[in-house]
Amino acid sequence: MRKLLYSFIIFFASLMPLASCTDTIAFGNSFLEKAPGGDVTEDTIFSSAEYTRSFLAGCYSRQYYGLTFATGLAHSVDSWVGKFDALTDLYQLYYSSTSVYKYYYTGSLDATIDPLFTYDSDYVWEAIRYCLIMLEHIDAVPDMDDEEKECIKAECYCLMATRYFDAFQWYGGLPIVTEQFTGSEESYEYPRATAEETVEHIISLLDKAIAIDELPWVYDDDADTETGHWTKAGAMALKCRVLQFAASPLFNSDTPYYGGSTEAEQQYLVWYGGYNSTWWTRLKTACEEFLTALAANGGYELCTPEWINSAWTDPTPDQYRLAYRYGYLQQASPEILHQVRVTRTSNSKYNWFTWVGNGRILYCPTQDYVEKFPYSDGTPFDWDEAEAAGTLDSMYFTATISNHALSDLTLTRDPRLYENAFINGVPTSLSWSTATTSGVNFETWIGGYTASSYALTESNKFATGYYCMKFILNKSGASGDAKSLYLQWPTIRLPDVYLMYAEALIQTGDCTGALEYINLVRARVGLGNLEEMDTRYDYTTNSEALLEELLDERAREFGMENIRYFDLIRYKRSDIFEKQLSRLLMYRQTLNDDGEYEDNTSAWYGNNTSIDWPLHYRYEKANVSTPVRYWWTYGYDPKWYLAPFPTTEINKEYGLIQNPGW
Question: What b-and-e string marks burial along 290-315, b requiring 16 or more CB atoms within 10 Å of the CB?
Fold first, then answer.
């Protein structure tokens, strides 16, 4: 599946009577289509194994891809839209022409405006329809063996499940479609299923896939053409994620999130009608089934420094950095349970240049996010304590000076911080093979070589004092560590299953068991056990504090992977959505003629390298104010927990009921 959007384009062009819109009718404009016409029919497509595999590639191409890719494809990959985590406390997006900025930050979204993930423009229903066509005809393919047919059926169940779940996270209960339409129906009655019915349908699809023996647990290392296909491991992990969302307070609560008077609530489209602890037990069981299968079959593990190089038995901070980077980004990562890939015809590699080089990618980590990362041993970072102790200058690194430049640099915080944000003092490049750093040190102080004065003007990259490193790796991109990489989207990774299991254990009363799996993820980047390094709480008994720490751990591990947004949604964390966020103003300090420190807003690199690289700064926190998010001033209306269905879809009268508040 190396070229999911384009590798099949020549063949698939001949199938356009099947795949194009013929009428403007329900489920968007592409789902309820008339039967194929012209020279190409379904019989033609499924008369050949080669054509059938190409059609399967078309099904795969309709998956969600979480990075900015190209205008004119799925709505959510358009760089004019914006990424989900920009709505959280982790990032502020400074490109004002995006939907995030125009409609969410200003509070002006309504049912006539596309939300970040659309009901009708993100290939959900097209993917489901293509899979239903495949399931109806796959047994008739004459030159394909039964084993491959069964495997394709399982893959289709996974594809439909992931697409339903993508939409469920945004909309709640959905219409459930179990057969393709012919286009000759006089009317279409497909009302929304309840939230519970929708979850159970998704789970049933995954259970069907998991039960098919021909679906492999993992693809062999030499099966390059198969990597990117759904596997049994991916299906079982996705089942865990579906149950995690289903068990959470958004749906699983004694009270509906909008008060209970709306039609959607009264028909249980957006909650279950009460709290049921069984949901958490089901999540726990699903995670245990996955872990049992993992122990039996292998094939996946956390990417550790020793996995990359067996000689790295006493890892350095940079080796831990590389392990984390490799784990989420590289195709050969041992921890990615499912990934989605895309390509462009204008480049021999994937879309690194689109994500890295696009001027609309102005995601700036907040000071609030940076402060979530502990010290490198796992001790919590506390700004007030560091400020009182006079140690803020070592909150990112320690170093000596040699020939005026930084030498013996040691990172002092959680290695994942330096992979999620550009941090002052860190060298430009991290070697993929040796984990050694090289290049110019990032200068993020006001006037610094890297960040210029963007923090002072609160604009462009480094508007918060930081810029997003995740998936980018270098500010310039074209010459950085991300050059020519195949930037697949990590749909689900092994650390997520570990942390989902920890969450299920917390919710079912086993904090000690939960700590074991939280500590597995922490240990991968060199952090000590949580209960030993953080003595603020007794995490073995304080489930509330442990759950809060778990959510922060997920934020540290999965920055820009959509996890934080859905964590806040499913736990109905209006308090975090309403929180005024902060940024950092950092001023380089130099001694004046009177022997006193004063602000110096000049760069070191390329300016005056006859003096020492600065090791002392003045730090000032400021509010994020461009713009002030609507929720910070007026509060978070719970209607925002789910997105509005498009008015155009509701007006088609096939059974959609609008979500509460919209």
Answer: bbebbeeeebbebbbbebbbeebeeb
Q: Give the closest residue to 456 by CA, choosing from 270, 556, 599.
A: 599
Which DSSP string do the residues of 382-425 spell out, in sequence order? -HHHHHHHT-GGGSSEEEEEETTEEEEEEE-B-TTHHHHB--TT
**Amino acid at the residue 315:** P
Q: What is the mean pLDDT of residues 518-522?
A: 98
Pick left, alpha or beta for residue 535 (phi over 0 → left; psi -120 to 50 → alpha; otherwise beta). alpha
Query: Do residues 128 and 181 make contact, with C-beta atoms less than 8 angstroms apart?
Result: no
**H or E stretch at 329:** helix 317-329
Could you tell me the CA-to-CA distances from 406 to 402, 427, 646 in Å, in that order?
A: 6, 10, 55
Please tell me the distance from the alpha carbon of residue 47 to that of residue 385, in angstroms, as a whole number.
Answer: 70
Q: For residue 356, which phi and psi values (nearest 5 degrees)?
A: -75, -45
CB crowding 151-174: b at 16 or more within 10 Å, else e: bbbbbbbbbbbbbbbbbbbbbbbb
Helices assigned H by DSSP within 345-493:
352-357, 367-370, 383-389, 417-420, 454-457
* Ramachandran region, residue 617 (left: φ > 0; alpha: ψ -120 to 50; beta: rest): beta
Confidence of residue 348 (pLDDT cuts 50, 70, 90): very low
Please check whether residue 524 is in contact with residue 540, taking contact to mean a CB–CB distance below 8 angstroms: no
pLDDT the model gives residue 344? 57
Q: Virtual CA dihedral for 6, 10, 12, 13, nearest 10 degrees? A: 120
pLDDT, tens only, 36-93: 344 567 888 999 999 999 999 999 999 999 988 766 778 998 889 999 999 999 999 9
Q: Is the pLDDT of residue 424 over 70?
A: yes
Q: Give the span between the Cα atoms of 361 and 455, in whole angstroms.
A: 16
Residue range 286-310: average pLDDT?
A: 98
CA angle (549, 551, 556) in 5-degree steps? 90
Please give the Cα distance from 583 to 624 (Å, whole number): 6
CB-based burial of residue 479 (10 Å sphere; 0-12 exposed, 13-18 middle, 19+ buried)? Answer: exposed
Alpha helices for 225-277 (secondary structure H)? 232-247, 263-266
The backbone torsions φ and ψ at residue 211, rounded to the nearest 5 degrees and listed phi first, read -75, -15
Better-predicted residue by pLDDT, 200 or 43 = 200
Q: Tokens for 481?
A: 């560590």
Query: Before 646, cis peptide (omega within 30)?
Result: no
Q: Span 418-434, mean pLDDT?
A: 95
CB within 8 A of 374, min separation 6: which ones? 380, 381, 413, 414, 527, 533, 534
Strand-pairing partners, residue 437, are 430
* End-to-end Cα distance, the chain: 39
Give the DSSP H/E element, type plus range, for residue 428: strand 427-430
**Residue with the two structure tokens 């508040």:** 661
CB neighbourhood size of 78 (10 A): 20
